[in-house]
Amino acid sequence: MANRDSSWLNGIDARGTSTVGLRRRRCGRGAGERGSLGQALVEFALVAPIMVLIFAALVQFAFIFERQIGIENAIRDGARRAATYETVDNTDTAVNGPFVWSLVFLGGGLLDTNVQGYDGLQAHDRKVCYRNQTSANGVGAILVKVSVGYHHPLFMPIISQILDPLDGSSDNALNVDTSSEFQIQNDPTIAASVSPDPTCYTGP
Prior knowledge:
The chain is of the alpha+beta class. The chain has helices at 2-9, 31-82, 90-105, 110-114, 159-163, and strands spanning 123-134, 140-153, 173-183, 199-201.
């Protein structure tokens, strides 16, 4: 028995097999591992609300930017087309103004067909205006301007409360005004003017 115990102490068991290097493994997590896990959970709890807020802001701004880009393109296209219609006096504005307004703002118009998620009830101050300007050769010319304001609905919590006051009113929407102006392509040798200056058509 003494030899057997002595062999065990020397790293050799009763069958002559070496036991040197064998260690008993401890079960469960060490104190250091538990501490690291707890620290990670705390950090996640601190960062998660910020990440959610950033994601919500990105979603809200994506909808606003997408719709606003469509509105700007539609308004620019309407003003560009209006500039191709000869307009030298108030007789012409009385015809061209309502036509351009309908082309841009009525159902099936440029805004309705080119803007994703467009809601005509959110649009306001829809105008087609003509004003006087002296051309480069000193002859009177006319500029046409198409403009609109649009209340972009806000739907993301917290982000809505941040953006809502930016336009000066608390209506759960962000108002953005858009306009585009071109010089009408009249005969450059013919003087053109409107009165009053500007002359605007705001719809039927």
